[in-house]
Amino acid sequence: MSEPQKASTADWIAVFAGALGALVATLDISIVNSALPEIQGEIGATGTEGTWISTGYLVSEVVIIPLTAWLTRLLGTRTLLLISVVTFTVFSMTCGLSHSLPMMILGRVGQGFTGGALIPAAQTIIRTRLPARQMPVGMAIFGLIVLLGPLAGPVLGGWLTENVSWRWCFFINLPVAIGLMTLLLIGLKHEKIRWEVLRTADWLGILGLATCLSSLTVVLEEGQREQWFDSDLICILSVASVIGFILLMVAQATAPHPVIKLRLLLERSYASVIVIVLTIGTALYGMLYVLPQFLGTVSGYNALQTGRVLVLSGIPAFLLMPILPRMLEKMNLRISVIIGLLCFAGGCFLNLHLTGESDGAAFVASQLLIGTGQMLSLLPLNQASVGAVSKEDAPDAAGLYNMARNLGGSIGLALLGTFIDRRDEFHTDILRSTLDANAPLVQERLSAMTASFARNGADQAYAQSQALASLSQTIDLQSLVMTYSDCFWVLGVALLASIPLTLLLKTPRRQADAVLGGH
């Protein structure tokens, strides 16, 4: 039976429902970042404890994403999404009403565990409800959502915190959930629960997957703050992660129906997609970490000002979304991914010449180029990921794809945290060693600063100490600027290194032509 030429109205309603669910889930990853200081102050959490507000969400989300395919087979797409939306809303209200850290962490873990299923489900709906000819449009919508969610989160969170209350970062999910449930009921058909899936479940694989991913995510997120293997917690979780991985591999070899189809990675085209997406996830979340750090510590920007700079990279996504699907019909998928990776890397390299005077204006060109690169690479990679597997394997492929992006982000943040500490120390030592206290230029600078402080009423001894402190702060600032420049360089090189893998990608367009008779 041939595939329909065009999707029905119900199909498009289902696609938009899935996209809206994915937007809510990706938005809530970062919406609390701007509000963290206010949240910590009100619930009585320290800075270190407050990191679990973000980590709790990421840990539970990365566990549920690869399990979504199995849950879809068990419950059906509509039932799973409706349960996810209702419980996600309940946990959102729990966060908004929180007055203690345990209650907040419980709410965030619940949000991640229920909202995480919305992301791969959206990709699965696109793969299963749209004909091949219209799939690029659906993937463009999904790609836009994945990009804009993390970018818009800090802006929306900052605005709500400053103008209403941080609690509305969570309460805002209620009206969205009502609209989403309406779309799901209209666009998706009810499917019977398949209890036999539960009876024959790969429980060893589920246990191994949950243990491995949750432990690994905590290690990556908290390792730098806990001084890595100097911490008993990190050591225990590292061992747990290895044990979980072993259990997962045993289940892959022995279970008749593994909970997650890692055999998909034996397909070279799909495996190359996963590695590239892992790299893009590292660069994407790395940029979302390094750029706010620079603007906050060097430029003195607040959360809302920083968010406005970050969201610049979303402009190309809006501009390209209407035309990119048609462009990809004419352009080879590999070429698009290569151009996208080059643009993304080029945007990183534009940030190599930062100074202590750089502000948001210095990032306009690089953000626009990075946004262009993300759209040109992620959209065809979405297509390549579903085009490399059968329609039956689409849910599993979507779960692995989204898990790779999120896991890449966690790996990137862990590596960058350590890299920043080491490079900052390195640059500080180099700068201090090159400044001779007896050098004429140093003496001239110190004399000028001492005179300036003395004119403002300080005695000579205090003015000299202020001048030395000011020089030390200047050294620290310059070493920090050089460190952030190094981060952009590393991210750019990582993106360039993934380009050879694009040669292994398969273009789904040929498959679509075969389905449609070459028309």
Please give a structural write-up:
There is one protein chain. With 519 residues, this protein is mainly alpha-helical. It has three domains: 200 residues, Up-down Bundle (Growth Hormone, Chain: A); 57 residues; 259 residues, MFS general substrate transporter like domains (Growth Hormone, Chain: A), CATH 1.20.1250.20. Helix content is 76%, strand content 0%. Helix 3 packs antiparallel against helix 19. The chain is globular and about 85 Å long. 51% of the residues are buried.
The CATH superfamily of the largest domain is known as: MFS general substrate transporter like domains
Report the strand count. Answer: 0
The separation of the N and C termini measures 16 Å
| String of helices and strands | HHHHHHHHHHHHHHHHHHHHHH
- The whole-number mean of residue pLDDT values reads 80
What is the C-level CATH assignment of the largest domain? Mainly Alpha
- Helix fraction by DSSP (H/I, runs of at least 4): over 70%
Multimeric status of the protein: single chain
Our Rg estimate from Cα atoms comes to 25 Å
Report the principal-axis shape. globular
Largest sheet: none
Low-confidence stretches: 509-519
**Strand pairing plus helix content: what structural class?**
mainly alpha
In percent, how much strand structure appears in the residues? under 5%
CATH fold name of the largest domain, please?
Growth Hormone, Chain: A
Number of helices: 22
Give the number of domains: 3
Which terms would index this structure?
519 residues, mainly alpha, Growth Hormone, Chain: A, 3 domains, 22 helices, disordered C terminus
